[in-house]
Write a structure and sequence with these properties.
The protein is α+β, with helices and mostly antiparallel strands and 247 residues long. The protein has three domains: 8-83 and 140-152, Chitinase A, domain 3 (Roll), CATH 3.10.50.40; 88-132, Thrombin, subunit H; 156-246, Alpha-Beta Plaits (2-Layer Sandwich), CATH 3.30.70. 19% of the residues lie in helices and 34% in strands. Strands 1, 2, 3, 4 and 9 form a five-stranded antiparallel beta sheet that branches. Helix 4 (155-165) packs across helix 5 (192-208). The longest helix is centred in the last third of the chain and has 17 residues, at 192-208.
Length: 247
């Protein structure tokens, strides 16, 4: 079996610098712990790959295209097929005052966004900040150990996985010929991140699931604190549901 553009799959992988064996990234918590790079704020486990979305480097996508669900492979990508060769013209010097005007105190290793590009601060001194706009793994030969965990075919599952990519867990998802309905009950925390991530996940759904032309979002809000006339008490009042149609 080979995969094609638009296909949804989940993969598990570990990436290392082929030259010195340094762990660069992994979806396996135990591997991260063994390398002393475990981050409790990261979510470990299979990750979603949508072919043609540029979610992974071109060399990795090329190898994944040849694989089947359940298959594992180990291979090495040259820099050109991974994160590119280093470009020394992307190493620049900025005035430290340019950071201070944005209330940023730069330090070596800090990751910032410069002109829309992820950037690493290399050094700070004498009022100058040396930045590197190359990808941190540019110029490296990357060894990948990859397993295709599975292929995702059901529309509801595709929506769920895209939402999960943006940190959302819908209470329920229904899809059909008229589009999709996504419901978030009162247990889903609706803070500022929720609304930003909801907008991003909707854009992703329309982009990568071409069959969907209409989405209805339903959100539940329950007042469990207020008292007095009209207040909804836990287990007594009825939930209020807001429906928003996205087209």
């Amino acid at each position: 079996m080979t995969f094609k553009e638009g296909d949804f799959i989940e993969i598990e992988y570990t990436a290392k610098n082929e030259d010195d064996g340094t762990l660069l990234a992994t979806t396996d918590a135990e591997t991260a712990k063994a390398a002393d790079v475990y981050d409790e704020h990261l979510k470990y486990g299979p990750v979603l790959v949508v072919f043609g979305s540029n979610a992974v480097v071109k060399g990795l996508e090329r190898e994944l295209e040849k694989m089947s669900p359940g298959e594992s492979r180990t291979f090495v990508l040259e820099a050109e097929e991974a994160f590119g060769r280093r470009d020394e013209s992307l190493v620049r010097v900025m005035k430290e005052s340019e950071f201070k005007t944005q209330n940023i105190k730069p330090y070596p290793g800090m990751r910032v966004n410069i002109d829309g590009a992820p950037t690493t601060v290399k050094s700070v001194g004498s009022g100058r900040v040396v930045i590197d706009m190359n990808h941190p793994d540019a110029g490296k030969r990357i060894k990948y150990e990859v397993k295709v965990s599975g292929r995702i075919d059901k529309e509801e599952d595709k929506i769920s996985k895209l939402a999960d990519t943006y940190g959302l867990s819908p209470t329920s998802i229904k899809s059909g010929s008229e589009g999709a309905e996504i419901f978030f009950d009162n247990k889903v925390r609706k803070d500022s991140d929720y609304f930003i991530n909801k907008a991003s996940s909707l854009a992703a759904i329309f982009t990568y699931i071409k069959e969907i032309k209409r989405i209805v979002i339903k959100e539940e809000y329950i007042n469990e604190v207020g008292k007095g006339d009209g207040a909804l008490q836990e287990g007594k009042g009825q939930a209020s549901t807001k429906s928003v149609e996205e087209q």
